[in-house]
From TrEMBL:
The keyword DNA-binding applies. InterPro entries: YjbR-like_sf, YjbR/MT2646/Rv2570-like. Pfam families: YjbR. This is MmcQ/YjbR family DNA-binding protein. The keyword tRNA processing does not apply. GO terms for molecular function: DNA binding. Keywords: DNA-binding.
């Protein structure tokens, strides 16, 4: 399996371990939601001629600029970029995994209901 597959699976597994998180497949893409809100876009499982592997997260802190500094990263399409969503290519040189995990957690916290965030905060690390 390629490195980007491993990174994608690490992000997916972390996201699904967050309170009330679940996987969905609208439009044929993989997303992770909390309640009805998406907090992680993972795209399709296999690249095609038109699709390259990416992930998308909603970032409101300095992490937003950091994510956009990744080679090939861009504000997400369909107007989501205006709300802080960033699409990051999985095939680019990426920051360390702990940084990517932090981005997923920040995205989760941006959309999760307060009770889910409270549950997350109550977990022992």
């Amino acid at each position: 399996m390629s490195a980007w597959h491993d990174t994608r699976e690490e992000l997916r597994a972390f996201a699904l371990g967050l309170p009330e998180a679940w996987e969905d497949h609208p439009w044929g893409d993989t997303v992770v939601k909390v309640g009805k809100k998406i907090f992680l876009f993972l795209g399709v499982e296999e690249p095609t001629d038109k699709w390259r592997p990416t992930f998308g997260v909603k970032l409101r802190t300095e992490a937003h600029g950091h994510a956009l500094a990744v080679e090939g990263a861009r504000p997400s399409g369909y107007g989501l970029g205006r709300a802080g969503w960033v699409t990051v290519p999985l095939e680019s040189p990426l920051p360390p995994s702990d940084v990517l995990i932090d981005w997923v957690e920040e995205s989760y916290r941006a959309v999760a209901p307060k009770r889910a965030v409270k549950e997350l905060d109550g977990r022992v690390t």
